[in-house]
Amino acid sequence: MQDDAVTGGPWSVVAGEWQPPAELNTGIPHPARMYDYYLGGKDNFPADREAAEKIIEVMPDARLAAQSNRDFLGRAVEFAVGQGVRQFLDIGTGIPAVGSTGEVAHRVAPDARVVYVDNDPIVLTHSRALLAHHPVGHTTVLHADLRDPEAILGDPGLKEAIDLSRPVALMLVAVMHFVRDEEGAAETVARLRDALAPGSLLILSHGTQDFMTADAAAETTRIYSRASSPLVLRTGDQVRELFGDFELADPGLVQLPLWRPKEELPDGWQQAVPAYAGVAVKR
């Protein structure tokens, strides 16, 4: 793949030119755009902001939780590079922002290959336009849905960018809680794990009710039920099962800010970040 090209799906970016997707449905909140709003981004619409503000009413520190998740992603990518991994498959990537997988990976390993996968047209458009003007390293953006792992694994763009016979860091950061059990959440992760070579990593964070009151968990779930992807909060034991037989790296599966923090945690973080995080290796 050429360094100045971003490919994937019917919307491609080559040498700075990109073709926009079909009309967006901006009237329904989308988790990726709500997340962008929490992080202070501008790639969101009134429906996204309205839903996000309702979440903030229930969880006043929702922005802190989002930033904590983004910080975990950065630490995990740096850990993967330290383990010798140079290939990253980021599914449900969301709208690129400061501290994205590609930004961190290419800062510490310029030869890293990164594949972004998302099903939201605005994420795809924004990613491709951004990357077209920043021709750094090997980056691919694919239009696919996490609920269809076979389509992801069989995509020609993925096969061109990543060698699945070598270690890959599979990034499922703050995305599995938008896949319901009846949609095959466990089976989806298992299929993706099975496709990875020994030495690969699963980097995962996931919302949970374990650190929330029952009322807050119920209201948060209710608000997201009106979004394009309803929220599924899982217990620590349920999240741990998603790692299968992969071996969790120290400190194991922990409340998200506790995964190898670099700085002192802010006051009140225990209540502000109702999520688990972990990184595990395939032996």
Describe the structure concisely for a colleague:
The chain has 11 helices and 11 strands.
CATH architecture classification: 3-Layer(aba) Sandwich
Order of helices and strands: EEEHHHEHEHEHHEHEHHEEHE
Give the structural class: alpha/beta
Q: Note the main sheet.
A: 8 strands, mixed
Tell me the span between the first and last alpha carbons: 29 Å
Tell me, briefly, the overall form.
Answer: globular
Assembly annotation = single chain
CATH superfamily: Vaccinia Virus protein VP39
Report the CATH topology name: Rossmann fold
Number of domains: 1
Total beta strands: 11
Which CATH top level class fits? Answer: Alpha Beta
- Estimated share of beta-strand residues: 15-25%
| Mean pLDDT value | 87
Radius of gyration: 18 Å
Q: Report the helical percentage.
A: 25-40%
Q: What this model shows, in words?
A:
By secondary structure, this protein is α/β, with parallel strands linked by helices. The protein contains eleven helices and eleven strands. It has helices at 31-38, 46-58, 62-82, 101-108, 121-132, 149-154, 156-161, 185-194, 214-224, 236-241, 269-272; strands at residues 5-6, 13-14, 17-18, 87-91, 113-118, 138-143, 169-173, 201-207, 247-248, 254-255, 275-281. Strands 4, 5, 6, 7, 8, 9, 10 and 11 form an eight-stranded mixed sheet that branches. It is globular and about 45 Å long.
